[in-house]
Amino acid sequence: MAYYVYILASRRNGALYIGMTNHLLRRVHEHKQGLVAGFTQKYKISNLVYVDVFDSAYAAITREKQLKAWNRAWKIALIQQSNPYWNDLYGQFV
Predict the structure, then answer these.
(1) What CATH superfamily classification does 3-93 receive?
(2) What are the GIY-YIG domain coordinates in residue numbering (predicted)?
């Protein structure tokens, strides 16, 4: 089973959300449809801009916590390294 750490953005350089799941398509779909109450729903954060894949839940949780502790500039640099135009990557996984 694969585990995913993902970053969602409201827009380029907009609000960011970091999460972890074992079913990336379902989870991002829930964010896109506004089914996840709270921060992502309130700020309309639904563009998948970064994904890491792991073989273990422990590794994914560790990475999620690491990224959440990073400052905003590091998070933006990480996104821009692999996705310089902040494209919504959701379509690549459908």
Answers:
(1) GIY-YIG endonuclease (3.40.1440.10)
(2) 1-77
